[in-house]
Amino acid sequence: MTQQTIVWIAGTGWDAVPGTDKRLVQALPPDQHVLWIDPPVPVRNMKGLAALTSAGKSPDAVAQNVLRVKVSALPGVTRFGVRRVTGVLLSRTIRRALSGSGRRASAVVVAFPLARFPQWADTQKILYVTDDWLGGSSLMGFSRNEVKRVLVKNLREAHNVAAVSEYLSSELRQIRLLREDEGPEPPFTLLPNGCQEAERTGLQSDPQPIAGLVGQLNERLDLDVLEAVQAKGVRIMVIGPRADRDPEFGRRLDRFLAAANVQWLGRVAPEDLAFHLRQLGVGLTPYADTRFNRASFPLKTLEYLAAGVPVVSTDIPAARWLSTEHVEISATPQTFARNVVHALSKPADLIQRQQCRDFAANHSWAMRARQFLDLLEAGSRNQALLGPKES
């Protein structure tokens, strides 16, 4: 019997730092089988060229219900001409993996900015936009024009469009409205990021007066905010790898991380992160006011709350959407720093910390997985209503 499978064309590789895609897939129930497609990786030698013809033949079992497929591509994946070849290789690899594993696609999810829906796919098509791909194209090293071209085509072909924030969903609608020949509009579904629901034991009874920053360190951060907090003499624990590119930003980040009251732990193992989070008195979400950040839904905010840690955030739409007293929104660096100092000056409150965790439990990845399955069900109805989509 052919097994029904969700084909998930992912935005990051399975072995990369876990992001939206992987966390949502891992939260799906065991009866939901997924064929996870890593983003195409350019070949570098003759052995890699051989992989072009064999890709997809032997998917790896990376989880109980997940098979992973690595996709090889020619060098210059984003270049004109090579892009088309890459698309053909991607589509062929997916078909080969489905056929070889005795599976049939029950749905195709595209969550990679440069991937088109496969032309052979006659099942429902879900476009899952996890960030402002247009605004962040340069950060990702992609051509903005190419990202826009692919996005417009996928918006036309999708039976359902999911986005991690209301701001992003609105932006996608505007992009789609630029074309007047589209026909019926697919539903736009809000599917925000989530968090791991913390165990109900081990709540830190005596958190330290430490402010914590978790996640990749790059140009999305507002260094004015971090420097204002550091200047107050607050002890700051920073957890996460550097991924900055701009030289001036890098020099400022160097100075911040070298400050006497800043401790940078770099990347830590997932099992160690929970321990460090429970030590914190407050979590920091210091995102700069950019279009990319306004469209995003920071993972770190809910991760702090799931650990029982209240949050101080810059004024971004995702923080306002959460609409909770446990996330203090700050409009300026000075206000942000004062709110951090105030949060750390209050005595430990176990009731508040448990309330943070209870709030986060309503936004767990398990909850998001259920919302995604509802989306699939709605997509099946919409597919029947809208009929076959152009590819």
Short description:
The chain is built from 15 helices and 16 strands. By secondary structure, the chain is α/β, with parallel strands linked by helices.
Key structural traits:
8-stranded mixed sheet, alpha/beta, 15 helices, 6-stranded parallel sheet, 16 strands
Task: Tell how many strands the DSSP assignment holds.
Answer: 16
Strand order of the largest sheet: 4-5-2-1-7-8-9-10
The helix fraction, in percent, is 40-55%
Shape field: globular
State the separation between the terminal residues, measured CA to CA.
Answer: 28 Å
- Counting helices, strands and paired strands, the structural category is alpha/beta
Strand content: 15-25%
Low-confidence stretches: none
Computed over alpha carbons, the radius of gyration is: 22 Å
| Average pLDDT over all residues | 88
Largest beta-sheet details = 8 strands, mixed
Quickly count the helices: 15
Descriptive report:
This protein has 391 residues and is an alpha/beta fold. Helix content is 42%, strand content 18%. It is built from 15 helices and 16 strands. The protein has an eight-stranded mixed sheet, with helices on both faces. Strands 13-12-11-14-15-16 form a six-stranded parallel sheet, with helices on both faces. It has a two-stranded parallel ribbon with strand order 3-6. Helix 6 (166-177) links the parallel strand 9 and strand 10 (188-190). It is globular and about 60 Å long.
